[in-house]
Amino acid sequence: MQQEAMMYFSKLDDSPMFRQQIQCLEEIAETLRERGSKFYKGCRKYTEGLTEANERDAAFASSLESFGGGPDPISMAFGGPDMIKFAVVLREIGTYKESLRSKIEHTLSDRLIRFTNMELQDIKEARKRFDKADAVYSQIRDKFLSLRKSTRTEIAVAMEERDVPGTL
User: Fold this and answer.
1) Where is the signal peptide (predicted)?
2) Which range (31-35, 59-63, 118-122) has the least confidence?
């Protein structure tokens, strides 16, 4: 992704409009990061709630089984077989809740936090690299503009090449 962006942006000229676009994209990325962070927190609360609900359902199912699960006449009088069916359904619902929690946690939450922490961080790093390159360019431009008009072109080119990073 980063390489594609560099290829795309390498063809652009630096202009006020370009800088405004960068600023706008940074603001969008920051908004996305904030919204993603809030959504992640919501996912965490929901999965924690599912875990708690599943534990409560399992405890209630155990209570039903212990109260009405015996073959004795008291259990039969209070509808023991129906209570056992209800307990089985509660445990099945718990299995589905656990599956839902797992899917949300691993499929949604993990990917979301990775996106907000890694991908959006790459945007900040790209901005730092842009600002650094811009500072180097401005410094070289200022040196070039400060040369007297009588300075020969070869000296100016040699000076520029000496100050440009990555050149010999």
Assistant:
1) none
2) 118-122
AA identity, residue 157: V
Alpha-carbon gap, residue 64 to 46, rounded angstroms: 26
Q: What is the pLDDT of residues 2-19, one digit of tens each?
A: 455 445 555 556 778 888
| CA–CA dist 56, 51 (Å, integer) | 9
CA distances from 79 to 67, 75, 90, 160 (A): 10, 6, 17, 92
Under 8 Å between Cβ of 40 and 112: yes
pTM above the 0.85 mark? no
Cα(118)–Cα(129) distance, rounded to whole angstroms? 16
Residue 150, pLDDT score: 59
Question: What are the DSSP calls for the chain, one per residue?
Answer: -HHHHHHHHTTPPP-HHHHHHHHHHHHHHHHHHHHHHHHHHHHHHHHHHHHHHHHHHHHHHHHHHHHH-SSSHHHHHTTHHHHHHHHHHHHHHHHHHHHHHHHIIIIIIHHHHHIIIIIHHHHHHHHHHHHHHHHHHHHHHHHHHHS-TTS-HHHHHHHHHHHSTT--
The pair of three-digit structure tokens given for residue 86, joined into one six-digit string: 């209800």
